[in-house]
Amino acid sequence: MSQASNRLEKRDQLISTAFSLFYRYGIHAVGINQVIDAAGVAKRTLYHHFESKEALIAATLAYRDQQFRTWLEARIEQAPPGEGALLAVFDALNDWFNERDEAIMPFHGCFFINTCAEYTDPQNVHHKQCQAHKRLVGEMLLRHAYQVNAERADELSQELVFLKEGAIVQAHVMAAPQAALVAKGMAKRLLQSYAT
Amino acid sequence: MSQASNRLEKRDQLISTAFSLFYRYGIHAVGINQVIDAAGVAKRTLYHHFESKEALIAATLAYRDQQFRTWLEARIEQAPPGEGALLAVFDALNDWFNERDEAIMPFHGCFFINTCAEYTDPQNVHHKQCQAHKRLVGEMLLRHAYQVNAERADELSQELVFLKEGAIVQAHVMAAPQAALVAKGMAKRLLQSYAT
DNA sequence: CTGGATGTATACCGGTCTGTCTACTTTGGT
DNA sequence: ACCAAAGTAGACAGACCGGTATACATCCAG
Questions:
Q1: What confidence tens digit (pLDDT) does each residue in B20-53 have?
Q2: Which of A17, A24, A51, A175 could form a cystine bridge with A39, CB 3.0-4.6 A?
Q3: Is B24 on the interface with A (CB under 8 A)?
Q4: DSSP assigned state of A76
Q5: pLDDT of B51-75, one tens digit each?
Q6: Please, what CATH class does the domain formed by B62-194 belong to?
Q7: Which residues in chain B come in under a pLDDT of 70?
Q8: Residue numbers in B near A113 (CB within 8 A)
Q9: Looking at the complex, does the CB of residue B158 fall below 8 Å from at least one CB of chain A?
Q10: Is the peptide bond before B80 cis (omega within 30 degrees of 0)?
């Protein structure tokens, strides 16, 4: 057993526990005491690793950003490049919504949209961090859109983002896990109109 | 001066004040004391009209549901029926995002999406109330979609809802008020493919 | 003209919030 | 073997939470 890392893992333990609680119950609704109890860690330890709750929130957003983009990138790479890759996004969403992919379970909406809902001011630190995440995901789609239609890649990827966000909201708010399939159908027709 | 209604208006005053605060800062972030201070009302008065904060939240959601649907309905009715009405939705969104319509200012995202983000469990009372609102808005679109393509009205309205939700999220999270125009462009092409 | 509904102001209750502090233990690299 | 880093448990501070209680004022309908 790696005792050495056991110590250093406390930080990650706190982050992943905080993420699970924030994601499920919302950030304001979860107190620091809940986090440390669930993580099985002393309060002092939390404040050893993080200056404040704000810092923990920032770390949680960074953690999820990494996890989510790594997951989506992997799902896309398994598909054929170009159109296949872009449609694979919606298959990935489908598995996410239906909690069929362990790597990204469970589903309680988009953590970043949810966080922006709690910090509605676009100038807010956390809101900005969510924007940065969405920008990176958008750029990911853009790279693949480039394979489909280089001249209109910006347009195409932007429109696909709309379908993606719409699907996530619909799946969460309406508890409609089939939303990804509707969005995929729309995406297919969109791709046809962009085919070169 | 109508002193009689002055009394009865306190309830509405509380609701509209609570809405403004909840909408801007999130529900969990706003305390009951903030609400009564902003409304200029005694705490006893709040608890005379509402059993609890939960009850105030419910009333706030009902108030916004009414306000929003009345506003959107009016905006749609001003446009020619059928396609015009459906496209008018996106013009309305455009004015909302850009805070050009006093009747619906300001813009901090969709109150119902935001509330679902704070109460992620679809079984939660408030989450369900948000679903009900979205269902009513969806039915509103459905009625107009029926004028465009009676056989495929369900499909069409559902797809327009995706564009609408996508636009709202994009406008809020990315602070991109032009999102409504992108969505309108997509909607136009969608309507072409549904034209009878 | 009186009584009940609605309002005011303010103190209070028990609990929880973030964050600090004390005092002690475990661990691992040098 | 030793010391700094990282950990533990838990009390504490001061603010704020939702909600109740007390005591009194205003208003209007029967």
A1: 999 999 999 999 999 999 999 999 999 999 999 9
A2: A17
A3: yes
A4: H
A5: 999 999 999 999 999 999 999 999 9
A6: mainly alpha
A7: 1-8
A8: 113, 117, 169, 173
A9: yes
A10: no
